[in-house]
């Protein structure tokens, strides 16, 4: 019986590639593992998989009775509804420890670094397993994505070192140029609905007695949103009502200006303003230097809620 490996709902490149890279490692170690996903892949992830000739992992949303490894999350809000009916064998992550619990001991690799694929690279090194060229290239791209090509405050010296090692294995000389090509793909919004954009990289968090949804769109030029921002707001209102949320926050992150335009639909704007020491104007605020949801957004929201 296969063990399934998957990342969070609304999977990003780190969670999809992490499932693929960890499945390969586990299979080399003698476990029968299959990479899966909980949701649709983003244009950036599609670019990465196509670049290195990889298949999209199988879509699977129910895991009751299965053995699983979790990649890039440990929060119930980002897990399948029946996760507590599965046997969790391990977690590979780089976020805060979430609220998922287990009834048996588990393998747990959680590190305060820029990407889950950096954590998985450490596991390859620990077990002495060589990384294939195609998987190395995908892992490198996933780390560049999560660290915003090393600009994110979550990026560590280890992430930079691992990218260089993976680039060498993948025979990629100018990895930063590939990273920019990837972000240009990530910036494409033409043809996408407001819901597709709002949930492209979106997570829900339980904070106290409230639940918040926080999404992030990273682009090379915020002007791509000029004609669709009102559509994003209208969909945020619907998303808030449909999911019974206290607030929906969408970060429009400009990786060149190194900051984020924050869009807010909330039951209490003052909590959001206090969290970021800002004043919302037309339900928006510019957050200079804010690139990381996990380090520069979620902790400040939790302090308020």
From TrEMBL:
Cofactor(s) recorded in Swiss-Prot or TrEMBL: Mn(2+)
Keyword Manganese: yes
Keywords: Hydrolase, Manganese, Metal-binding
Gene Ontology cellular component annotations, sorted alphabetically: cytoplasm
InterPro entries: DDH_dom (IPR001667), DHH_sf (IPR038763), DHHA2 (IPR004097), DHHA2_dom_sf (IPR038222)
EC number: 3.6.1.1
Domain DHHA2: 179-305
Keyword Coiled coil attached: no
Coiled coil: none
Enzyme category, top tier: hydrolase
Record's catalysed reaction(s): diphosphate + H2O = 2 phosphate + H(+)
GO molecular function: inorganic diphosphate phosphatase activity; metal ion binding
Protein name: inorganic diphosphatase
Organism placement in taxonomy: Bacteria, Pseudomonadati, Campylobacterota, Epsilonproteobacteria, Campylobacterales
């Amino acid at each position: 019986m296969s063990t399934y490996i998957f990342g969070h709902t609304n999977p990003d490149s780190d969670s999809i590639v992490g499932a693929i890279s960890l499945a390969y490692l586990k299979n080399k170690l003698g476990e029968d593992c299959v990479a899966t996903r909980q949701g649709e892949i983003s244009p950036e992830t599609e670019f990465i998989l196509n670049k290195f000739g990889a298949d999209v992992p199988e879509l699977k949303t129910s895991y009751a009775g299965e053995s699983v490894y979790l990649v890039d999350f440990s929060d119930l809000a980002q897990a399948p509804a029946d996760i507590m009916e599965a046997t969790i064998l391990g977690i590979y992550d780089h976020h805060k420890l979430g609220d998922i619990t287990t009834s048996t001991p588990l393998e747990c690799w959680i590190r305060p670094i820029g990407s889950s694929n950096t954590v998985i690279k450490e596991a390859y090194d620990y077990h002495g397993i060589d990384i294939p060229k195609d998987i190395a290239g995908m892992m490198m791209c996933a780390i560049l994505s999560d660290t915003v090509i090393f600009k994110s405050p979550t990026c560590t010296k280890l992430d930079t070192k691992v990218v260089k090692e993976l680039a060498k294995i993948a025979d990629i000389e100018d990895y930063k140029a590939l990273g920019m090509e990837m972000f240009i793909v990530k910036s494409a919004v033409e043809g996408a609905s407001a819901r597709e954009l709002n949930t492209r990289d979106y997570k829900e968090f339980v904070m106290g007695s409230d639940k918040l949804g926080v999404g992030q769109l990273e682009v090379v030029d915020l002007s791509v949103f000029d004609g669709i921002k009102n559509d994003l707001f209208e969909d945020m209102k619907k998303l808030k009502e449909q999911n019974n949320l206290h607030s929906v926050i969408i970060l429009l992150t400009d990786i060149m200006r190194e900051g984020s335009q924050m869009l807010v639909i909330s039951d209490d704007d003052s909590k959001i303003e206090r969290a970021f020491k800002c004043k919302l104007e037309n339900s928006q605020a510019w957050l200079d230097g804010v690139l990381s949801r996990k380090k520069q957004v979620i902790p400040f929201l939790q302090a308020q809620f």
